[in-house]
Design goal:
- The complex is a heterodimer of chains A (about 260) and B (about 230).
- In chain A, α5 (about 155-165) runs parallel beside α6.
- In chain A, the strands form three sheets. Chain A has a six-stranded mixed sheet, sandwiched between helices. A four-stranded antiparallel sheet of chain A has the order 2-1-4-5, covered by helices on one side. In chain A, strands 6-7 form a two-stranded antiparallel sheet.
- The longest helix of chain A has 17 residues, at about 185-200.
- Chain A has helices at about 45-50, 85-90, 110-120, 125-135, 155-165, 185-200, 210-215, 235-240, 245-250, and strands at about 5-15, 20-30, 35, 60-65, 65-70, 70-75, 75-80, 95, 170-175, 205, 220-225, 230-235.
- By secondary structure, chain A is an alpha/beta fold.
- Chain B is mostly helical.
- Chain B has a single domain (about 5-220), classed as MetI-like (MetI-like fold, Orthogonal Bundle).
- Helix content of chain B is about 75%, strand content about 0%.
- Chain B has nine helices and no strands.
- Chain B has helices at about 5-45, 50-65, 65-75, 90-115, 120-125, 130-145, 150-160, 175-185, 190-220.
- In chain B, α3 crosses α4, α4 packs across α6 and α8 (about 175-185) packs antiparallel against α9.
- The longest helix of chain B is centred in the N-terminal third of the chain and has 41 residues, at about 5-45.
- The N and C termini of chain B lie far apart (about 70 Å).
- The chains are: A alpha/beta (about 260), B mainly alpha (about 230).
- The interface of A and B includes residues 95, 118, 119 and 151 of A.
């Protein structure tokens, strides 16, 4: 799997008195598709928010593409990272959120174009070209001039994915991207994620409750419970042949009537 | 009391001259308040708690004391303060006094606008790796400002109506001229009526204009989700 794109070493995270992550050690391969499952409050989302630098770890280190996330080298050894350094590291990471977080004052196309123009200093023309390509990929080429609240939830989430893809991240994070959607809209979003996954070169971390989906696209499933990684392995092992009682118990809640995991 | 149309028409040009001072003073005070409003917001965001409290308290103090007292203090008392005391002309004193007073209100308006933008917008902007200033200018402020336009406009009109306070420290604007005329000819009804009419003529269309701006900015957010066509 080559050099890992992301490395967690003994990462702890507390919110006030509550310790959400209690020592995470994790390597994510450069093209690996990782599904994070576990009960709510187990720290799944926190793991990827730490990687996106939306939270900072209470203890431990995280590296992305060989660069320490929160500390940078200086004459005096490691010092807390400044914004400039953080922006360098963040360039490799993309994220899609549960609640889409599209910019409501921009059209779909502008949503996609704003980062390449402002962050990568691309020309308007090349940003537009790339954005249109990505919007086509997610099946929204005909909506580019609409505003986000003219779209359905599923469409919004597809725009959010196009917006992240335009920046060519090396690792993309999906934070329960189907949880806020009406059931009938989940499929179209999963379809796009599957397409992205099949292209292969990008690492993906998905926090998800869609067990079937995890089984289908992930190379690896992590079961998080109470702030620690309790099980880690290929989906065939974790989802189809769970060993620990807690994991079995967790998965049983997703078992549908015909005995398959839904 | 007798109403004289002759006096009425005679004072119109006199007070009209003062109108420019009133309008000018309003604009300058408002610009001062609009810019200084960011100062309070900024002071609230520096990562040093005691400073936050201190400035919060100062702003609260300014909000809770009458602007007239503040004007008198700046114009009459401040020059007597040792070391930092400076004597100001009436116009500057009025700009400083009313400007600072209203800046404390405007900073609250800014705050409410900024807080109305969802946390997810900041996070999406971070995830797209926008710089701090890009986050503010491309993402947050374009969403924070439109909902505050009615409040900002209201404060403009309220300030316009508070500007005559400046006549108490000698700014020669509409009210001052009306008063002078009254004192000279012992006729108060007509000049003060003209002052009121001028205020009405200026503030009513402003209110309409603000309403229009508000509609314009809110329209594009209001487009409802349309089903697949």
């Amino acid at each position: 799997m080559g050099e890992p794109i992301a490395k967690y070493r003994d990462v702890h995270k507390s919110f006030g008195e509550v310790e959400v992550l209690k020592g995470i050690d994790l390597d994510i391969g450069s093209a690996e598709k990782v599904a994070l499952i576990g009960p709510s409050g187990s720290g799944k989302t926190t793991i990827i928010r730490l990687l996106m630098t939306l939270e900072n770890p209470t203890m431990g280190t995280i590296e992305v593409n060989g660069k320490n996330l929160w500390h940078m080298e200086s004459k005096n050894g490691l010092v807390p990272a400044n914004e400039k350094y953080l922006r360098e590291v963040r360039g490799d990471i993309g994220m899609v959120f549960q609640h889409f977080n599209l910019f409501p004052h921009m059209t779909i196309l502008e949503n996609c174009m704003t980062a390449p123009i402002n962050v990568k200093k691309e020309s308007k023309e090349s940003a537009r070209k790339r954005s249109l390509e990505m919007l086509e990929k997610v099946g929204l080429a005909d909506k580019v001039d609409l505003y986000p609240n003219q779209l359905s939830g599923g469409q919004k989430q597809r725009v959010a994915m196009a917006r992240a893809l335009v920046m060519r991240p090396k690792i993309m994070l999906f934070d329960e991207v189907t949880s806020a959607l009406d059931p009938e809209l989940v499929g179209e979003v999963l379809e796009v994620i599957r397409d992205i996954a099949e292209e292969g070169e990008m690492a993906m971390v998905l926090v998800t409750h869609e067990m079937d989906f995890a089984l289908d696209i992930a190379d690896r499933v992590l079961f998080l419970n109470d702030g620690v990684i309790e099980a880690d392995g290929p989906p065939s092992e974790i989802i189809e042949n769970p060993k620990s009682e807690r994991l079995k118990d967790f998965l049983s809640r997703f078992t549908s009537s015909n005995g398959n995991h839904a | 009391m007798t109403w004289s149309w002759e006096v009425f028409f005679e004072v119109i040009p006199i007070i009209f001259k003062g109108m420019w001072i009133t309008v000018g003073l309003t604009i300058v005070c408002y610009l001062f308040a609009a810019i200084f409003g960011f100062f309070w917001l900024f002071m609230d965001r520096i990562p040093f708690k005691p400073a936050n409290w201190l400035f919060k308290w100062i702003a609260e103090f300014i909000r809770s004391t009458p602007p007239l007292v503040q004007l008198f203090f700046i114009y009459y008392a401040w020059p007597m303060v040792p070391v930092i005391g400076v004597s100001l002309n009436p116009f500057s004193a009025a700009v400083l006094g009313l400007g600072i007073h209203f800046s404390t209100y405007l900073s609250e308006v800014y705050r409410s606008g900024i807080e109305s933008v969802e946390k997810g917008q900041w996070e999406a902007a971070t995830a797209l790796n926008l710089s701090t200033s890009q986050k503010w200018f491309k993402v947050i402020l374009p969403q924070a400002i439109p909902p505050t336009i009615p409040m900002l406009g209201n404060y403009l009109i309220i300030m316009f109506k508070e500007v005559p306070l400046a006549s108490t420290i000698g700014v020669v604007a509409m009210l001052h001229l009306a008063n002078d005329y009254g004192a000279q000819y012992y006729k108060y009804v007509e000049p003060l009526t003209v002052v009121a009419i001028f205020f009405l003529i200026l503030s009513y269309p402003s209110a309409l204009l603000i309403k229009k701006l508000e509609d314009k900015y809110n329209r594009r957010f209001d487009k409802k989700y349309v089903t697949e066509s």
